[in-house]
Amino acid sequence: MKALPGALLLLACPVLAQVPVRVAPLSALTQPQRQDAPARVVNEQQPLLAARISGEVIRVLVRVGDRVAQGELLLELDCQDQQLSHRQQAAALEQLQARHPLLARRLSRARALHGQNNLSEEALDQRRSELAVLNADIKAGRAALARAELDAERCRIAAPFDAIILERLSATGTLVQAGTPLFRLQQEQGAELSVLLAPARVARITEAERLWFEFAGQVYPVRLRRVVGHINAGRTQELRLGFTQHSPLTGATGILVWQAAEPLLPANLLVRRGDRLGVMVLEQERARFVPLPDAIEGQASAIALPAATRVIIEGQFTVVDGDPVRVEDSRDDTTPAH
């Protein structure tokens, strides 16, 4: 009879009933997280090619839209003055060099006479000075000749790199001065992708597994080159991305797409507990609520849990955190739910 109170106590505290649920691995429920933003192909390698000397344009060999290779001749200036100057400098240098053997012999004889005490130190210094002045004149003559050669070469305007002719700013018969623009070029290899994003989205794109640009039905793989460390008036940051293979035409406007590292959980699996949204998972035969801080009602949410996590897909709205559950069925396939 003494055991009766204990038995009555057990009857007064019934065992919590296990709630029947169905579960599935997280890997079978998530889908890749695809995000996108407007983007534009830009190319800042568009220099103005200008004349380096004054002269009359006598020949233009290219037109707007032409593709040119590095070193290809684009335009020629009348080079008669430069060629004449080159010949004059060459002749002047030749005269100076012709005097060198004579002065060198004079200095040699002066040294010999000075060694025999037949020539004063002052006379020897005079011979040394004459040869030193001549050597300096020869150096100056060589520099003047090099300048004349450079001016003659500048009569021929060549492409500094592989490029497209965007503008032709001169014509045959035009008299141009040094610094006059002749062409606007666009370097073929300078295209980049520019995109403006809110700072919160910038953090996600830097962790993206894949990035690509979509334009006119084509896909162009890209990689992040730089996040510009400045927030502009629109409260966005600019990102610059380089093309890893071929690139579209400069000025093309399309969509930058990226696949985030974290997958998305469908919105129908989200549950609310208090003021938080999250997901119910199974741990040691009990339901556990995992909050998702960035979740938004009615939208798929990023989730950073192990792929093998067992998610409650039926009964998740009934159970609460800590409830014992009984798994009646489970999904083991890997087809993501939509």
From TrEMBL:
Family to which the UniProt record says this protein belongs: Belongs to the membrane fusion protein (MFP) (TC 8.A.1) family.
InterPro entries, sorted: BSH_CzcB-like, RND_pump_MFP
Name the record gives this protein: CzcB-like barrel-sandwich hybrid domain-containing protein
Keyword set, alphabetical order: Signal
Residues of the signal peptide: 1-17
A Pfam family this chain is assigned to: BSH_CzcB
Coiled-coil segments: none
All residue ranges annotated as the CzcB-like barrel-sandwich hybrid domain in the record: 50-185
Membrane-spanning ranges: none
The UniProt record lists the keyword Signal: yes
Gene3D superfamilies: 2.40.30.170, 2.40.50.100, Helix hairpin bin (1.10.287.470)
